[in-house]
């Protein structure tokens, strides 16, 4: 089942993917990680953001997800500068080939995972000026406006997608990771929230500014399922949840 993995600029898409290759996994691991990938994890290497007009050749990630039985997922990591949903980027002659290639991938995919930054007013609020600068944290209004572009992107260029997974990354900046992970953890014995309960809890607490936009996606694409998550490379439980969800629905 084809899955594309995209997101905003400087939000940590590549670092999230790299950390899924860690052997310290709970239930999700990338099985085709290279020796270089593992070395970067061991060294704590920080990946630099892709250049504004940059796009790397999509990388296929082979993922093993352990539910009651193992499930294999194939993910296309599209490593762009996060500008791919902008009309200006799409119409730039320098990006013609990359945009054409991406549309081919998007048209064949059944699911899309979009990594979003936090916004300043989220959760416990992000008020430290240095943190805002270092992580390029937008205001709630800026964040909502950016997401509107993603809505148009899904509806226009992902015709066969029936699962959209939205992840607000860098959750360590705005919430108590351990507390949230304990509430949201996946356990096959069913003694925790189900996927609908997780989605409702996360959406109401962290995605409220774009709930009308999410409703717009559902309204305009019959049968499309949108699910929301928070992620952080500093908490394995939260990092793996989006992929556990996809595996449970796409098997």
Which key terms come to mind for this protein?
globular, alpha/beta, Rossmann fold, 7-stranded mixed β-sheet, 7 strands, 41% helix, 17% strand, 251 residues
Kindly describe this structure.
The protein has ten helices and seven strands. By secondary structure, it is of the alpha/beta class. The N and C termini lie close together (8 Å). The protein has a single domain, classed as Rossmann fold, CATH 3.40.50.300. Helix 6 (140-157) packs parallel to helix 9 (211-220). The longest helix is centred in the middle third of the chain and has 18 residues, at 140-157.
User: Would you give the CATH topology?
Assistant: Rossmann fold
Shape field:
globular
Poorly predicted regions are 44-54
CATH class: Alpha Beta
Number of strands: 7
Helix count, DSSP H or I runs of 4 or more residues: 10
Spatial sequence of strands, sheet with the most strands: 2-3-4-1-5-6-7
């Amino acid at each position: 089942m084809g899955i594309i993995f995209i997101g905003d600029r400087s939000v940590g898409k590549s670092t999230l993917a790299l950390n899924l290759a860690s052997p310290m996994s709970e239930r999700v691991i990338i099985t085709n990680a290279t020796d270089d990938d593992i070395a970067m994890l061991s060294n704590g290497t920080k990946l630099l953001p892709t250049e504004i007009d940059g796009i790397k050749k999509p990388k296929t990630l082979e993922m093993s997800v352990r539910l009651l039985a193992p499930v294999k997922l194939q993910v296309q990591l599209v490593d762009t500068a996060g500008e791919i949903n902008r009309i200006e980027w799409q119409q730039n002659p320098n990006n013609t080939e990359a945009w054409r290639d991406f549309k081919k991938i998007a048209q064949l995919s059944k699911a899309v995972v979009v990594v979003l930054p936090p916004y300043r007013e989220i959760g416990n609020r992000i008020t430290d000026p240095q943190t805002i600068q270092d992580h390029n944290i937008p205001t709630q209004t800026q964040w909502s406006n950016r997401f509107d572009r993603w809505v148009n992107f899904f509806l226009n260029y992902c015709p066969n997608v029936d699962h959209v997974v939205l992840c607000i990354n860098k959750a360590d900046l705005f919430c108590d990771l351990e507390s949230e992970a304990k509430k949201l953890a996946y356990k096959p014995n069913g003694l925790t929230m189900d996927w609908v309960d997780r989605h409702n809890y996360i959406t109401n607490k962290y995605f409220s500014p774009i709930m009308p936009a999410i409703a717009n996606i559902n309204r305009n694409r019959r049968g499309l399922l949108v699910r929301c998550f928070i992620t952080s490379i500093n908490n394995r439980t939260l990092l793996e949840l989006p992929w556990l969800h996809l595996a449970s629905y796409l098997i």
